[in-house]
Amino acid sequence: MKYRSAFDIIGPVMVGPSSSHTAGAVRIGRVARSLFEKQPKKVDIHLYGSFATTYKGHGTDLALVAGLLDFDTFNERIPDSLKIANEVNMEVVFHEEGAIPEHPNTVKLVLASDEQTLEVIGVSIGGGAIEIKEINSFKLKLSGDPAFLVMHQDKFGVVSCVTSILSKYKINIGHMEVSRKEKGDMAIMVIQVDQKIEDAVLNEIKELSNVRGVIRMVA
Amino acid sequence: MFRNVAELVSLAEQSQVKIAEIMIRQEIEVSGRPREEIIAKMEQNLDVMEKALERGLSGVKSQTGLTGGDAVLLQNYIRSGKGLSGNLLLDAVSKAVATNEVNAAMGVICATPTAGSAGVVPGTLFAVKEKLNPTRMEMIEFLFTAAAFGFVVANNATVSGAAGGCQAEVGSAAGMAAASIVEMAGGTPRQAAEAMAITLKNMLGLVCDPVAGLVEVPCVKRNAMGASNALTAADMALAGITSRIPCDEVIAAMYEIGKTMPSALRETAQGGLAATPTGRRLEAEIFGEPKGKLKDYLVASIS
Protein backbone atom coordinates (compact mmCIF):
# COMPACT_ATOMS: atom_id res chain seq x y z
CA MET A 1 0.00 0.00 0.00
CA LYS A 2 1.33 3.39 -1.05
CA TYR A 3 -0.36 5.31 1.78
CA ARG A 4 0.02 4.07 5.35
CA SER A 5 -1.19 6.84 7.62
CA ALA A 6 -4.35 8.86 8.27
CA PHE A 7 -2.08 11.90 8.11
CA ASP A 8 -1.19 11.14 4.50
CA ILE A 9 -4.86 11.88 3.78
CA ILE A 10 -5.64 14.62 6.33
CA GLY A 11 -2.43 16.57 5.91
CA PRO A 12 0.14 17.82 5.36
CA VAL A 13 -0.27 21.28 6.80
CA MET A 14 1.22 23.32 4.02
CA VAL A 15 1.47 26.54 2.12
CA GLY A 16 -0.84 26.35 -0.94
CA PRO A 17 -1.80 26.01 -3.65
CA SER A 18 -1.20 22.33 -4.59
CA SER A 19 -0.32 19.31 -2.45
CA SER A 20 1.32 17.47 -5.33
CA HIS A 21 2.84 20.47 -7.10
CA THR A 22 3.74 22.50 -4.00
CA ALA A 23 3.99 20.36 -0.83
CA GLY A 24 5.25 17.26 -2.67
CA ALA A 25 7.77 19.42 -4.51
CA VAL A 26 9.05 20.91 -1.24
CA ARG A 27 9.54 17.38 0.09
CA ILE A 28 11.44 16.18 -2.98
CA GLY A 29 13.71 19.23 -2.80
CA ARG A 30 14.29 18.62 0.87
CA VAL A 31 15.19 14.95 0.45
CA ALA A 32 17.73 15.96 -2.20
CA ARG A 33 19.13 18.61 0.13
CA SER A 34 19.47 16.16 3.02
CA LEU A 35 21.18 13.62 0.74
CA PHE A 36 23.60 16.32 -0.37
CA GLU A 37 24.13 17.23 3.31
CA LYS A 38 24.77 20.90 2.59
CA GLN A 39 23.59 23.78 0.50
CA PRO A 40 24.53 23.20 -3.15
CA LYS A 41 26.16 25.93 -5.21
CA LYS A 42 24.09 25.20 -8.27
CA VAL A 43 20.99 23.14 -8.94
CA ASP A 44 19.65 22.14 -12.35
CA ILE A 45 15.96 21.39 -12.10
CA HIS A 46 14.50 19.28 -14.91
CA LEU A 47 10.70 19.25 -14.94
CA TYR A 48 8.65 16.57 -16.69
CA GLY A 49 4.96 16.03 -17.53
CA SER A 50 2.47 18.10 -15.55
CA PHE A 51 5.37 19.60 -13.58
CA ALA A 52 6.80 21.00 -16.82
CA THR A 53 3.54 22.49 -18.07
CA THR A 54 2.08 23.97 -14.88
CA TYR A 55 5.00 24.59 -12.54
CA LYS A 56 4.70 28.36 -12.57
CA GLY A 57 1.01 28.35 -11.75
CA HIS A 58 1.36 25.95 -8.84
CA GLY A 59 4.51 27.49 -7.41
CA THR A 60 6.36 24.19 -8.06
CA ASP A 61 9.50 26.20 -8.84
CA LEU A 62 9.24 28.09 -5.54
CA ALA A 63 8.48 24.85 -3.70
CA LEU A 64 11.40 22.83 -5.08
CA VAL A 65 13.80 25.64 -4.29
CA ALA A 66 12.28 25.99 -0.80
CA GLY A 67 12.95 22.30 -0.22
CA LEU A 68 16.51 22.72 -1.46
CA LEU A 69 16.83 25.50 1.11
CA ASP A 70 15.70 22.94 3.74
CA PHE A 71 12.29 24.57 4.37
CA ASP A 72 9.35 22.48 5.56
CA THR A 73 5.98 22.39 3.67
CA PHE A 74 4.37 24.94 6.02
CA ASN A 75 7.17 27.51 5.95
CA GLU A 76 5.59 30.85 5.14
CA ARG A 77 8.74 31.97 3.30
CA ILE A 78 8.08 29.45 0.47
CA PRO A 79 6.64 32.18 -1.83
CA ASP A 80 9.96 34.08 -1.46
CA SER A 81 12.28 31.08 -1.97
CA LEU A 82 13.73 32.18 -5.33
CA LYS A 83 14.73 35.50 -3.82
CA ILE A 84 16.20 33.78 -0.77
CA ALA A 85 18.17 31.33 -2.96
CA ASN A 86 19.64 34.31 -4.76
CA GLU A 87 20.58 35.95 -1.44
CA VAL A 88 22.38 32.83 -0.19
CA ASN A 89 24.12 32.32 -3.57
CA MET A 90 22.41 29.11 -4.61
CA GLU A 91 22.10 29.24 -8.40
CA VAL A 92 18.97 27.59 -9.79
CA VAL A 93 18.29 26.77 -13.44
CA PHE A 94 14.97 25.40 -14.65
CA HIS A 95 14.62 23.10 -17.67
CA GLU A 96 11.18 22.26 -19.09
CA GLU A 97 11.59 18.77 -20.54
CA GLY A 98 9.40 17.40 -23.35
CA ALA A 99 9.97 13.70 -22.58
CA ILE A 100 6.90 11.92 -21.23
CA PRO A 101 7.61 10.37 -17.83
CA GLU A 102 5.99 7.30 -16.32
CA HIS A 103 4.26 9.50 -13.72
CA PRO A 104 3.11 13.02 -14.70
CA ASN A 105 4.72 14.79 -11.73
CA THR A 106 8.38 13.96 -12.15
CA VAL A 107 11.45 16.07 -11.45
CA LYS A 108 15.17 15.46 -11.78
CA LEU A 109 17.39 17.55 -9.52
CA VAL A 110 21.10 17.82 -10.19
CA LEU A 111 22.84 19.37 -7.20
CA ALA A 112 26.40 20.53 -7.54
CA SER A 113 29.13 22.05 -5.42
CA ASP A 114 32.84 22.40 -6.28
CA GLU A 115 33.71 18.83 -5.37
CA GLN A 116 30.55 16.79 -5.79
CA THR A 117 27.34 16.34 -7.74
CA LEU A 118 24.19 14.46 -6.87
CA GLU A 119 21.32 13.47 -9.14
CA VAL A 120 17.92 12.74 -7.61
CA ILE A 121 14.76 11.77 -9.49
CA GLY A 122 11.57 12.25 -7.50
CA VAL A 123 7.88 11.84 -8.17
CA SER A 124 5.01 13.56 -6.40
CA ILE A 125 2.32 10.90 -6.29
CA GLY A 126 -0.55 12.98 -4.86
CA GLY A 127 -1.68 14.52 -1.59
CA GLY A 128 1.87 15.62 -0.78
CA ALA A 129 3.26 12.07 -0.77
CA ILE A 130 6.45 11.51 -2.76
CA GLU A 131 8.60 8.71 -4.08
CA ILE A 132 12.31 9.00 -4.72
CA LYS A 133 12.95 6.93 -7.83
CA GLU A 134 16.67 7.31 -8.38
CA ILE A 135 19.77 8.59 -6.62
CA ASN A 136 22.86 8.90 -8.84
CA SER A 137 21.29 6.34 -11.21
CA PHE A 138 20.59 3.90 -8.35
CA LYS A 139 16.96 2.91 -8.72
CA LEU A 140 15.01 2.99 -5.46
CA LYS A 141 11.56 1.97 -4.31
CA LEU A 142 10.36 3.92 -1.29
CA SER A 143 6.87 4.39 0.10
CA GLY A 144 5.54 5.95 3.29
CA ASP A 145 7.14 3.53 5.77
CA PRO A 146 10.02 4.75 7.91
CA ALA A 147 13.08 4.32 5.78
CA PHE A 148 16.75 5.17 5.71
CA LEU A 149 19.54 5.02 3.24
CA VAL A 150 23.06 3.77 3.89
CA MET A 151 25.92 4.74 1.60
CA HIS A 152 28.70 2.22 1.96
CA GLN A 153 31.70 0.51 0.40
CA ASP A 154 30.66 -2.49 -1.69
CA LYS A 155 32.32 -5.13 0.47
CA PHE A 156 31.41 -8.43 2.15
CA GLY A 157 29.78 -8.25 5.59
CA VAL A 158 28.55 -4.65 5.50
CA VAL A 159 24.92 -5.64 4.95
CA SER A 160 25.03 -8.13 7.81
CA CYS A 161 26.61 -5.56 10.18
CA VAL A 162 23.75 -3.14 9.46
CA THR A 163 21.01 -5.74 9.83
CA SER A 164 22.59 -7.02 13.08
CA ILE A 165 22.18 -3.57 14.59
CA LEU A 166 18.51 -3.47 13.53
CA SER A 167 17.95 -6.90 14.96
CA LYS A 168 19.56 -5.84 18.25
CA TYR A 169 16.97 -3.04 18.52
CA LYS A 170 14.17 -5.48 17.52
CA ILE A 171 13.43 -3.50 14.34
CA ASN A 172 11.81 -5.52 11.57
CA ILE A 173 12.74 -4.85 7.95
CA GLY A 174 9.76 -4.59 5.59
CA HIS A 175 11.67 -4.00 2.39
CA MET A 176 15.33 -3.72 1.53
CA GLU A 177 17.31 -2.99 -1.58
CA VAL A 178 21.03 -3.00 -2.20
CA SER A 179 22.55 -1.64 -5.35
CA ARG A 180 25.90 -0.50 -6.63
CA LYS A 181 27.38 1.04 -9.70
CA GLU A 182 30.41 -1.24 -10.00
CA LYS A 183 31.85 -4.11 -8.02
CA GLY A 184 33.84 -2.83 -5.04
CA ASP A 185 32.73 0.77 -5.59
CA MET A 186 30.14 2.87 -3.72
CA ALA A 187 26.95 1.05 -2.90
CA ILE A 188 23.61 2.08 -1.49
CA MET A 189 21.29 0.23 0.84
CA VAL A 190 17.71 1.38 1.24
CA ILE A 191 15.94 -0.15 4.20
CA GLN A 192 12.27 0.23 5.03
CA VAL A 193 11.23 -0.77 8.52
CA ASP A 194 7.98 -1.23 10.42
CA GLN A 195 8.49 1.29 13.19
CA LYS A 196 10.00 4.65 13.96
CA ILE A 197 13.82 4.55 14.02
CA GLU A 198 15.54 6.39 16.86
CA ASP A 199 18.58 8.57 16.13
CA ALA A 200 20.72 6.29 18.32
CA VAL A 201 20.18 3.40 15.90
CA LEU A 202 21.21 5.44 12.89
CA ASN A 203 24.23 6.81 14.73
CA GLU A 204 25.38 3.30 15.57
CA ILE A 205 25.12 2.32 11.90
CA LYS A 206 27.02 5.45 10.94
CA GLU A 207 29.90 4.34 13.20
CA LEU A 208 30.43 1.09 11.27
CA SER A 209 33.58 0.87 9.22
CA ASN A 210 32.89 0.87 5.45
CA VAL A 211 29.74 2.96 6.03
CA ARG A 212 30.13 6.44 4.60
CA GLY A 213 26.82 7.94 5.52
CA VAL A 214 23.33 7.27 6.80
CA ILE A 215 20.33 9.38 5.85
CA ARG A 216 16.82 9.19 7.17
CA MET A 217 14.51 9.17 4.14
CA VAL A 218 11.10 8.81 5.75
CA ALA A 219 10.60 9.55 9.45
CA MET B 1 -5.38 -3.19 8.08
CA PHE B 2 -8.52 -2.52 6.01
CA ARG B 3 -8.02 -2.54 2.26
CA ASN B 4 -11.41 -1.40 1.04
CA VAL B 5 -14.65 0.19 2.17
CA ALA B 6 -16.38 -3.17 2.64
CA GLU B 7 -13.70 -4.27 5.11
CA LEU B 8 -13.77 -0.89 6.85
CA VAL B 9 -17.54 -1.07 7.35
CA SER B 10 -17.48 -4.66 8.58
CA LEU B 11 -14.64 -3.90 11.02
CA ALA B 12 -16.69 -1.04 12.48
CA GLU B 13 -19.83 -3.18 12.63
CA GLN B 14 -18.06 -6.14 14.27
CA SER B 15 -16.46 -3.98 16.96
CA GLN B 16 -19.57 -1.77 17.20
CA VAL B 17 -17.53 1.38 16.97
CA LYS B 18 -17.40 4.37 14.67
CA ILE B 19 -15.33 4.30 11.50
CA ALA B 20 -13.24 7.03 13.10
CA GLU B 21 -12.24 4.60 15.84
CA ILE B 22 -11.12 1.96 13.30
CA MET B 23 -8.89 4.59 11.66
CA ILE B 24 -7.46 5.67 15.02
CA ARG B 25 -6.70 2.06 16.02
CA GLN B 26 -4.98 1.42 12.71
CA GLU B 27 -2.92 4.58 13.06
CA ILE B 28 -1.77 3.47 16.53
CA GLU B 29 -0.73 0.12 15.12
CA VAL B 30 1.03 1.42 12.02
CA SER B 31 2.85 4.34 13.65
CA GLY B 32 3.61 2.72 16.99
CA ARG B 33 2.67 6.02 18.63
CA PRO B 34 0.28 6.39 21.58
CA ARG B 35 -3.39 7.33 21.07
CA GLU B 36 -3.05 10.74 22.76
CA GLU B 37 -0.27 11.74 20.37
CA ILE B 38 -2.32 10.75 17.34
CA ILE B 39 -5.41 12.59 18.56
CA ALA B 40 -3.30 15.67 19.36
CA LYS B 41 -1.79 15.64 15.89
CA MET B 42 -5.23 15.55 14.27
CA GLU B 43 -6.35 18.36 16.54
CA GLN B 44 -3.46 20.48 15.23
CA ASN B 45 -4.77 19.86 11.70
CA LEU B 46 -8.24 20.88 12.87
CA ASP B 47 -6.78 24.12 14.27
CA VAL B 48 -5.05 24.87 10.95
CA MET B 49 -8.35 24.31 9.11
CA GLU B 50 -10.22 26.61 11.47
CA LYS B 51 -7.63 29.39 11.10
CA ALA B 52 -7.54 29.09 7.31
CA LEU B 53 -11.32 29.21 7.16
CA GLU B 54 -11.53 32.29 9.38
CA ARG B 55 -8.89 34.00 7.29
CA GLY B 56 -10.83 33.26 4.12
CA LEU B 57 -14.09 34.50 5.65
CA SER B 58 -12.45 37.82 6.46
CA GLY B 59 -11.49 38.20 2.78
CA VAL B 60 -8.33 37.30 0.84
CA LYS B 61 -7.11 37.86 -2.72
CA SER B 62 -4.71 35.68 -4.69
CA GLN B 63 -1.61 37.18 -6.30
CA THR B 64 -3.18 36.97 -9.75
CA GLY B 65 -6.45 38.46 -8.55
CA LEU B 66 -8.39 35.60 -10.17
CA THR B 67 -9.87 34.41 -6.89
CA GLY B 68 -10.72 35.74 -3.45
CA GLY B 69 -13.61 37.51 -1.78
CA ASP B 70 -16.39 35.11 -2.80
CA ALA B 71 -16.65 33.60 0.70
CA VAL B 72 -17.41 37.08 2.02
CA LEU B 73 -20.07 37.66 -0.65
CA LEU B 74 -21.78 34.41 0.33
CA GLN B 75 -21.71 35.19 4.06
CA ASN B 76 -23.29 38.59 3.35
CA TYR B 77 -25.92 36.89 1.22
CA ILE B 78 -26.73 34.40 4.01
CA ARG B 79 -27.16 37.31 6.42
CA SER B 80 -29.56 39.01 3.99
CA GLY B 81 -31.97 36.10 4.57
CA LYS B 82 -32.63 35.72 0.85
CA GLY B 83 -30.86 32.36 0.44
CA LEU B 84 -32.91 29.75 -1.39
CA SER B 85 -30.98 26.52 -0.79
CA GLY B 86 -30.83 26.72 3.01
CA ASN B 87 -28.39 28.45 5.29
CA LEU B 88 -26.46 25.34 6.35
CA LEU B 89 -25.71 24.42 2.75
CA LEU B 90 -24.69 27.97 1.85
CA ASP B 91 -22.56 28.19 5.00
CA ALA B 92 -20.73 24.98 3.99
CA VAL B 93 -20.21 26.32 0.49
CA SER B 94 -18.87 29.65 1.74
CA LYS B 95 -16.49 27.93 4.16
CA ALA B 96 -15.21 25.56 1.47
CA VAL B 97 -14.64 28.58 -0.77
CA ALA B 98 -12.93 30.47 2.09
CA THR B 99 -10.41 27.67 2.60
CA ASN B 100 -9.57 27.38 -1.09
CA GLU B 101 -9.25 31.12 -1.48
CA VAL B 102 -6.60 31.02 1.24
CA ASN B 103 -4.91 28.12 -0.54
CA ALA B 104 -4.87 30.03 -3.85
CA ALA B 105 -3.32 32.98 -2.03
CA MET B 106 -0.42 30.70 -0.95
CA GLY B 107 -1.66 30.71 2.64
CA VAL B 108 -1.31 27.85 5.15
CA ILE B 109 -3.96 25.13 4.85
CA CYS B 110 -4.30 21.43 5.67
CA ALA B 111 -4.54 19.17 2.61
CA THR B 112 -7.72 17.01 2.70
CA PRO B 113 -6.76 14.90 0.78
CA THR B 114 -5.01 17.46 -1.44
CA ALA B 115 -4.53 21.22 -1.28
CA GLY B 116 -6.65 21.83 -4.37
CA SER B 117 -9.54 20.03 -2.66
CA ALA B 118 -8.79 21.31 0.86
CA GLY B 119 -12.07 23.22 1.21
CA VAL B 120 -14.67 20.47 1.13
CA VAL B 121 -13.97 18.58 4.37
CA PRO B 122 -13.44 21.62 6.66
CA GLY B 123 -16.20 23.59 4.88
CA THR B 124 -18.83 20.94 5.59
CA LEU B 125 -17.45 20.19 9.07
CA PHE B 126 -17.63 23.77 10.30
CA ALA B 127 -21.10 24.28 8.78
CA VAL B 128 -22.59 21.06 10.21
CA LYS B 129 -21.02 21.97 13.55
CA GLU B 130 -23.47 24.87 13.85
CA LYS B 131 -26.40 22.47 13.74
CA LEU B 132 -25.09 19.36 15.51
CA ASN B 133 -23.02 21.09 18.22
CA PRO B 134 -20.33 18.39 18.35
CA THR B 135 -17.63 18.19 21.02
CA ARG B 136 -14.04 18.94 19.97
CA MET B 137 -13.37 15.19 20.05
CA GLU B 138 -16.30 14.54 17.70
CA MET B 139 -14.85 17.11 15.29
CA ILE B 140 -11.52 15.30 15.43
CA GLU B 141 -13.36 12.03 14.75
CA PHE B 142 -14.96 13.64 11.69
CA LEU B 143 -11.44 14.03 10.29
CA PHE B 144 -10.45 10.43 11.11
CA THR B 145 -13.57 9.13 9.35
CA ALA B 146 -12.72 11.26 6.33
CA ALA B 147 -9.15 9.91 6.51
CA ALA B 148 -10.38 6.29 6.53
CA PHE B 149 -12.36 6.73 3.30
CA GLY B 150 -9.62 8.81 1.70
CA PHE B 151 -7.12 6.12 2.65
CA VAL B 152 -9.07 3.52 0.68
CA VAL B 153 -9.31 5.79 -2.37
CA ALA B 154 -5.62 6.75 -2.25
CA ASN B 155 -4.50 3.11 -2.01
CA ASN B 156 -6.94 1.56 -4.49
CA ALA B 157 -7.28 4.44 -6.92
CA THR B 158 -5.71 7.89 -6.77
CA VAL B 159 -6.26 11.29 -5.15
CA SER B 160 -4.05 13.11 -7.64
CA GLY B 161 -5.60 15.41 -10.24
CA ALA B 162 -2.62 14.82 -12.53
CA ALA B 163 -3.25 11.08 -12.38
CA GLY B 164 -7.06 10.95 -12.25
CA GLY B 165 -8.60 14.37 -12.88
CA CYS B 166 -10.68 16.49 -10.49
CA GLN B 167 -12.94 13.51 -9.71
CA ALA B 168 -9.91 12.07 -7.87
CA GLU B 169 -9.38 15.27 -5.85
CA VAL B 170 -12.64 17.12 -5.20
CA GLY B 171 -14.59 13.92 -5.92
CA SER B 172 -12.68 12.04 -3.22
CA ALA B 173 -12.85 14.97 -0.81
CA ALA B 174 -16.61 15.25 -1.26
CA GLY B 175 -17.08 11.51 -0.74
CA MET B 176 -14.95 11.62 2.41
CA ALA B 177 -16.93 14.61 3.72
CA ALA B 178 -20.28 12.97 3.00
CA ALA B 179 -19.28 9.86 4.97
CA SER B 180 -18.07 11.97 7.91
CA ILE B 181 -21.24 14.09 7.96
CA VAL B 182 -23.34 10.91 8.14
CA GLU B 183 -21.30 9.55 11.02
CA MET B 184 -21.41 12.84 12.94
CA ALA B 185 -25.18 13.00 12.43
CA GLY B 186 -25.54 9.56 14.02
CA GLY B 187 -25.73 7.43 10.86
CA THR B 188 -24.33 3.90 10.69
CA PRO B 189 -20.97 2.95 9.10
CA ARG B 190 -22.96 1.41 6.24
CA GLN B 191 -24.84 4.66 5.67
CA ALA B 192 -21.53 6.53 5.68
CA ALA B 193 -20.31 4.26 2.88
CA GLU B 194 -23.55 4.81 0.95
CA ALA B 195 -23.09 8.59 1.23
CA MET B 196 -19.54 8.29 -0.09
CA ALA B 197 -20.74 6.15 -3.01
CA ILE B 198 -23.61 8.50 -3.89
CA THR B 199 -21.30 11.52 -3.80
CA LEU B 200 -18.49 10.03 -5.84
CA LYS B 201 -20.92 8.66 -8.45
CA ASN B 202 -21.97 12.21 -9.12
CA MET B 203 -18.45 13.48 -9.53
CA LEU B 204 -17.26 10.79 -11.95
CA GLY B 205 -15.64 12.12 -15.07
CA LEU B 206 -14.86 15.53 -13.63
CA VAL B 207 -11.69 16.73 -15.35
CA CYS B 208 -8.80 18.76 -13.97
CA ASP B 209 -8.45 21.77 -16.28
CA PRO B 210 -7.03 24.65 -14.27
CA VAL B 211 -6.79 27.95 -16.11
CA ALA B 212 -3.12 28.90 -16.52
CA GLY B 213 -2.22 25.88 -14.40
CA LEU B 214 -3.26 27.78 -11.29
CA VAL B 215 -5.25 26.21 -8.46
CA GLU B 216 -7.86 28.94 -8.77
CA VAL B 217 -10.25 28.69 -11.73
CA PRO B 218 -12.31 26.49 -11.54
CA CYS B 219 -10.85 24.83 -8.40
CA VAL B 220 -12.39 27.18 -5.83
CA LYS B 221 -15.90 26.76 -7.20
CA ARG B 222 -15.43 23.01 -7.64
CA ASN B 223 -14.82 22.88 -3.88
CA ALA B 224 -18.06 24.81 -3.38
CA MET B 225 -20.00 22.24 -5.40
CA GLY B 226 -18.13 19.37 -3.75
CA ALA B 227 -19.36 20.61 -0.36
CA SER B 228 -22.91 20.96 -1.61
CA ASN B 229 -22.80 17.51 -3.24
CA ALA B 230 -21.49 15.98 0.02
CA LEU B 231 -24.26 17.49 2.14
CA THR B 232 -27.01 16.42 -0.25
CA ALA B 233 -25.65 12.87 -0.49
CA ALA B 234 -25.30 12.68 3.31
CA ASP B 235 -28.96 13.64 3.69
CA MET B 236 -29.94 11.06 1.09
CA ALA B 237 -28.01 8.30 2.89
CA LEU B 238 -29.47 9.35 6.25
CA ALA B 239 -32.93 9.15 4.67
CA GLY B 240 -32.19 5.48 3.97
CA ILE B 241 -31.30 5.74 0.28
CA THR B 242 -28.61 3.30 -0.86
CA SER B 243 -26.31 3.19 -3.87
CA ARG B 244 -27.03 0.37 -6.30
CA ILE B 245 -23.32 0.27 -7.14
CA PRO B 246 -21.26 -0.53 -4.00
CA CYS B 247 -18.80 2.12 -2.82
CA ASP B 248 -15.68 0.08 -3.67
CA GLU B 249 -16.89 -0.41 -7.23
CA VAL B 250 -17.58 3.31 -7.60
CA ILE B 251 -14.00 3.98 -6.46
CA ALA B 252 -12.71 1.44 -8.99
CA ALA B 253 -14.79 3.07 -11.73
CA MET B 254 -13.35 6.47 -10.80
CA TYR B 255 -9.83 5.06 -11.16
CA GLU B 256 -10.59 3.48 -14.55
CA ILE B 257 -12.12 6.72 -15.81
CA GLY B 258 -9.08 8.63 -14.55
CA LYS B 259 -6.67 6.33 -16.35
CA THR B 260 -8.49 6.74 -19.66
CA MET B 261 -8.79 10.51 -19.30
CA PRO B 262 -6.58 12.30 -21.83
CA SER B 263 -3.48 13.97 -20.43
CA ALA B 264 -4.83 17.35 -21.61
CA LEU B 265 -7.54 17.02 -18.94
CA ARG B 266 -5.31 15.95 -16.08
CA GLU B 267 -3.77 19.05 -14.53
CA THR B 268 -1.68 20.03 -17.55
CA ALA B 269 -3.65 23.22 -18.33
CA GLN B 270 -3.88 22.04 -21.94
CA GLY B 271 -7.59 21.32 -22.30
CA GLY B 272 -11.08 22.03 -20.97
CA LEU B 273 -11.62 25.42 -19.36
CA ALA B 274 -7.88 26.14 -19.53
CA ALA B 275 -8.06 25.97 -23.34
CA THR B 276 -11.12 28.24 -23.75
CA PRO B 277 -10.50 31.66 -25.34
CA THR B 278 -10.96 33.35 -21.97
CA GLY B 279 -8.81 30.76 -20.22
CA ARG B 280 -6.00 31.39 -22.71
CA ARG B 281 -6.42 35.16 -22.46
CA LEU B 282 -6.16 35.05 -18.66
CA GLU B 283 -3.09 32.83 -18.96
CA ALA B 284 -1.45 35.29 -21.35
CA GLU B 285 -2.27 38.20 -19.04
CA ILE B 286 -0.69 36.42 -16.07
CA PHE B 287 2.38 34.82 -17.67
CA GLY B 288 2.89 37.06 -20.69
CA GLU B 289 3.31 34.36 -23.30
CA PRO B 290 0.88 31.56 -24.19
CA LYS B 291 2.06 28.03 -23.50
CA GLY B 292 2.33 25.33 -26.20
CA LYS B 293 -0.97 24.38 -27.78
CA LEU B 294 -2.53 20.98 -27.23
CA LYS B 295 -1.58 19.87 -30.74
CA ASP B 296 2.09 20.66 -30.20
CA TYR B 297 1.96 18.80 -26.92
CA LEU B 298 0.49 15.67 -28.49
CA VAL B 299 3.03 15.77 -31.31
CA ALA B 300 5.78 16.02 -28.71
CA SER B 301 4.29 13.04 -26.83
CA ILE B 302 4.39 10.86 -29.92
CA SER B 303 7.86 11.77 -31.13
Describe this structure in words.
Chain B: Its EC number is 4.3.1.17. Chain B: Keywords: 4Fe-4S, Gluconeogenesis, Iron, Iron-sulfur, Lyase, Metal-binding. Chain B: It is an enzyme of class 4 (lyase). Chain B: It comes from Robertmurraya siralis. Chain B: Pathway: Carbohydrate biosynthesis; gluconeogenesis. Chain A: InterPro entries: ACT-like_dom_sf (IPR045865), ACT_dom (IPR002912), AHAS_small-like_ACT (IPR054480), ASB_dom_sf (IPR029009), Fe-S_L-Ser (IPR051318), Fe-S_L-Ser_bsu (IPR004643), Ser_deHydtase_bsu (IPR005131). The complex is a heterodimer of chains A (219) and B (303). Chain A has helices spanning 6-9, 19-36, 50-58, 60-68, 81-87, 158-168, 199-207, and strands spanning 13-15, 42-49, 91-96, 105-112, 117-126, 129-135, 138-139, 147-153, 173-180, 186-193, 211-218. Chain A contains 7 helices and 11 strands. Chain A is an alpha+beta fold and 219 residues long. The model of chain A has no long low-confidence stretch (mean pLDDT 90). In chain A, the strands form 2 sheets. Chain A has a 6-stranded mixed β-sheet. The two termini of chain A are 17 Å apart. Chain A has 2 domains: 6-136, 60s Ribosomal Protein L30, Chain: A, CATH 3.30.1330.90; 147-218, Alpha-Beta Plaits (2-Layer Sandwich). Chain B has 303 residues and is mostly helical. Chain B has one domain (5-302): Orthogonal Bundle (2-methylcitrate dehydratase PrpD), CATH 1.10.4100. Helices cover 66% and strands 1% of the residues of chain B. Chain B is built from 14 helices and 1 strand, in the order αααααβααααααααα. Chain B has helices spanning 5-15, 19-31, 35-57, 70-80, 87-104, 120-132, 136-156, 161-164, 166-184, 189-201, 219-238, 247-260, 277-287, 294-302; one strand spanning 108-110. In chain B, helix 4 runs antiparallel to helix 5 (87-104) and helix 9 (166-184) runs parallel beside helix 11 (219-238). The radius of gyration of chain B is 19 Å and the shape is globular. Chain B starts with a helix and ends with a helix. The relative contact order of chain B is 0.13. Residues 290-303 of chain B have low confidence and may be disordered. Strand 1 of chain A pairs antiparallel with strand 1 of chain B, so a sheet runs across the interface.
